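Changelog-adjacent note: as of this version, every example in the card shows the full chain rather than a window. The one below runs 172 residues end to end.
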Amino acid sequence: MKMKYIMLTLASVVMLSAATMAQTKSKFGHINSQELLQAMPEKVGADKALEEFAKTLESQLEAMAGELESKIQDYRANESVMSDIIKGTKAEEIQNLEQRIQAFQQNAQQSLGKKEMEVYQPVLDKAKAAIEKVSSANGYSYVFDSSSGMLLHQPESEDLMSLVKKELGITE
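Full-length structure tokens:
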């Protein structure tokens, strides 16, 4: 009788364990995040904002380069009639302007990077939220980004692109 009770208890534990394992089986999905971002209308606005900002910086740099070229041409054209003090002052002006241009280029590069993060972050956040919502609603344990090249094999993985696009209101 005691043996029957132990066997029955053991069988119950095994069945309960099997049921628990079946319920906790991981579900895998994948999505190409680059393709998703390209499909999002918000990206077009972000691209345009970044492009306009870059053009502003570029026009300022062109103006500074034009000023430098003008100073160099003036120096070369009038070098023979300038006194040593004026030559030195003009050469120093040119050197200072070259340094300002280099500093501006470095600052512009940093500003462009900050602006890029600023304009694309809301788009990335929206895409991430949609992926998380679709993943949770459909019971996915893991979602891989197939655009990163890290997804080498996807035997039991589902592509979530259409579900996430639907969540974002993007029509095919």
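Structural remarks: Residues 1-22 have pLDDT under 50 and may be disordered.
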